[in-house]
Every structure is written in C-alpha cells, then in structure tokens.
C-alpha cells in the first residue's frame, strides 16, 4: 500500500506588503547616506575653519598690539628704541597710541642725528691744524655748548615737516653739509642766528655746499664738457701758439668759434674757443 505525502500549502504573498518593505528599506538607506554626507561636510567645514585660523596672521597681530597696548607708555617707548627707523612709519598705522609713540621716537632720532652732525662738524673745526701741537684758543672758544646745538637741531627737525615728501632727501643733505669739515661757514651762520631753521631747509644742495665743494663741482662740470669735445684731428680751426693750456701746459692750440643755437643775433652770441691739440682740453678765449 503506497502512501502519498502531501506538501504543505504555501500561502500566497501579498505584493503590496513586499513593495512597502522594499520602499521602507530604500528610504532608510537613503536617510543613512544623507546623514553620513552631512556629517562629512560638517567635519570638512570644521577642519577648513581650523586651518584658516592657523594660517591667518591678522588675529596674531591684533593680539600682539593689544598686548603692547596694555603695557605702560614708558615701556613701549623703550621697546620702540630697538625698532629700525624705516619700520617706525608702518607702526604708526597700528593704533593711535602707537602712532604717537612711534612719531615721537622717529622725531627724536632725527633731532639726535642732526645734533651729532653739528657736534661732529664743530669738533673738526676745533681740531688743531696740521703740524700744530694743539687747537688754538679761538677755535676752542668758538665751539658752542651741547644744549645750544640740541636746540638748533630740534628747530631744524620741526622745520623739516614743512618740506613734504622731500623730507628724507633733505635730511640727508643736511646731515652731510652740517658735518662737512670744509663747511664751517654754514655751521657758524646757523648757530649765530644768521640763518634760521625754516630758511635752511629751503636751501638747495648747491646753496648748502661749501666753497671748496662748489669750486670742485665747477671743475667736474668743466671736465665733463671737455670730454665731449671732438678729437684734435676733427676739430676745425687754425693752429696757433698764442694760448697756454691749463691742463698740460702746451701751446699748440686750435681756435674755433661756436654759435648758440636759437638766437638771431649771431655776432652777439658767438664764442671763441681754444682746443689743445695734445690733451683736447677746451676753454673760452677772452676777446676783450
């Protein structure tokens, strides 16, 4: 007798319930991915903010200036004495307190350098001449006291503020000419009151220069003009031995006449020149 095994009946699945489960699973997965993406973006933003805060120099500058701002003014002024002179101008833009202290330090340095230049020049004036055992009494008495030099230097520093953008170049001119050993006349006139500080800062470099330097500059100018003269074989004129050359003491010269361009009265502006054949030196001949 054969036995027949019957399989249990499989209940049919509801299609709508399976779709709902799949949709719920997909929605949960999407929510997880979105939360992970948002978390990654937040972490990246925090990391970028930390990196920018480390690389940004502005907060460090504000912190350093705020630190110096809490210090006493005397201590800050002492610290500014170690700052180079070129950096004091940039410090004046930090804050109002720094601007006042840095400006006072810069003006004090300028006045001190002017006083040192004056003192050095008067020391060179009081030095004994070559071959003398000691300085003369007149030179020793002529040296003004240090307080007077400091007052004159302070007046010059105040007058320098009126020259505008040319203050730095004008200060260099003053330092050179006031300390020049060959320029005692300028120092004497300044200390005696013949020239005030306002007039001194308006002087040009030529007006402040010593007599020796002015004559030397004229010689340099004359030599520069002579160097552009054509060689002797290209200079037109007739040869004569009437004039002596001041450079080589030669007498072989060529005479030629030049006419100033742009003038109608040719006879009035023509000039007679003599050119040395040996050294090509040229000079104007006096026709009187």
Automatic annotation (TrEMBL):
The keyword Oxidoreductase does not apply. Residues 1-22 are annotated as: Disordered. One of its GO terms (molecular function) is zinc ion binding. Residues 110-236 form the TFIIS central domain. This is F-box domain-containing protein. Keywords: Metal-binding, Nucleus, Zinc, Zinc-finger. One of its GO terms (cellular component) is nucleus. Residues 65-114 form the F-box domain. GO terms for biological process: DNA-templated transcription.
